[in-house]
Queue: 2 jobs
Job 1
Amino acid sequence: MPALYLSESEARPGCRVIAIAGELDLAVAGQLEDALSRTAGIAEVLIDLSDCEFLDSTGLALLVNTRNAMLDEGRRLAAFAPSAQVARLIEVTGLAGTGLIFATIEEARLATG
């Protein structure tokens, strides 16, 4: 089973950062889903992908679907600092430039308010 490590912190009031380390795929996506469910009532969620070594379509779909659901609730989700493999997946899937993934936390913060 792939190893996935998550850490959560508050970047500022109303903004949670979830850092992903390891591989995010079907086998462990539930762990991230659980962490995201704990953000109910938090206006902004930033996902740190700098230590995410692998992301499959399940993990990517989780990020996209959560972002869409949060937007419907008037909340925001953005991810930042993707590793080379993750950045390539984002590019290939056409998600670059959609407002979901940013190069730095500063860009993600500006985009989320």
Note: Strands lie at 4-12, 15-24, 44-55, 76-80, 101-102.
Job 2
Amino acid sequence: MIPESKLIKSEITIRELSLPDDVVLARKSLIRWLALSLGLITPNESRRLLLDVFETLLDFHVKGDSPTTKDILDRLESETKAEQNPKAVYYHLLRLKEFGIISRKKGRYQIGNGNGQKLSELFRDFYLQKTNQAFDNIETALNKLESKY
């Protein structure tokens, strides 16, 4: 039997969602829509912290800043008017880093590799790279399979 779980390097989920006018009107709605489209959250996800961390990272990126964990915590506490659990914030940052959406250099986080690209370019490049890597192996497997017929 193939040890499937050991073969999985990563997974990507991209959902094709309609983009209604009411979603485009509110920033929080757009953040949730993006997170759902990009596979960062599941449908009907009720937890907000990942969305708040994601929004904070997007805001820093658009302003050309690379925040530290403390910067992120301070911003979250300022925005939510509530004390944040640092371990929970670290957890979500680690998830985003392991997924490959963010990177960390010298204690500072950035979306992508920090080269200052527009968000749309960063996410398109990220998902296309992941897809191309997956299809390279799929193509090899299909070619091997085809030769066996």
Note: The helical segments are 4-7, 21-25, 27-37, 49-62, 69-80, 86-99, 119-147.
